[in-house]
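=== RUN LOG ===
request id: a7f3
mode: sequence -> structure
chains: 1
length: 320
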Amino acid sequence: MLPGLLAVAVAVAVAVLVNQVVPAVSALTIAVVLGVLAGNLPVLPAAARPGLTWATRRLLRAGVVLLGLQLAVPQVLGLGAGTLLVVLATVAVTFVGTVLLGRALGLPRGLSVLVGTGFSICGASAVAAVEGVVEREEEDVATAVALVTLYGSLAIAALPLLAGPAGLEGEDFGRWAGASVHEVAQVVAAASPAGALAVATAVVVKLSRVVLLAPLVAAISVAERRRRPSAEGRRPPLVPLFVLGFLAMVVVRSVDVLPAPVLDATKFVTTLLLAGALFGLGSAVRIAALVRTGPKALLLGLFSTLLVVAVSWAGLSLVL
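=== RESULT ===
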């Protein structure tokens, strides 16, 4: 197990360092790319696999639990009912629309669910949270994270250019960025041209999407239980324990009992845990299988991005 854990530690350190140099690319994305490279090049010994498997499961769940400490319910409620309804509608329409298009394109259901969750909620973190409850291939996880990176990066450049034609400026543009861009780091980068207030608003709106991670994962888990008869193997739990842990951490953050230095430290630890888990996932991916889904997966990511951008803009245009 030790060789695998050492590989995870090195990969996480590299991912964090690269993220410091290129903040728009999240450490989670870098970690999964490193995992794919390590899994397809002769650099990992066979003895590393047990440690990688352990890291993938244990670190993933611990990271998702700690993710809840980034969410304070009073802060989210301060956005107002109109914005929260837009966020809810955007997440629901994007997720359902992405899954339906994935089915129409003939893509694996697991990939469609991962992409729908990542694009509608919070990018690679959401993909990592849902991969354990949906039936999928290892390549589907890497594909979903790659699509989040590609289209989230395009949104960083496109949204500020569309602000004028869309009629959204300043804080209102921040709401749009937070409601439509995939990763938190990408949200910050997209909202930055509109100023500090826009960035602050964008982050809070983004976190209101993250709040929906727990109910969405629970709903997917219930759907998977119905799809998989017990004869086919162990079905996923009705509500995964790590989802309950996530909700418990949201409560802890909302009652404001933890000092700011502790919250900052747990945010960094969350990144480390999720990066380690995604490196482990990436190491199990085989590029040949990943390439086979390429064109259709790209089309799915494009549609999902256009959907989340259009629905959030339409909703905000009505309530602002």
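=== NOTES ===
The mean pLDDT is 86.
The longest helix spans residues 138-166.
=== END ===
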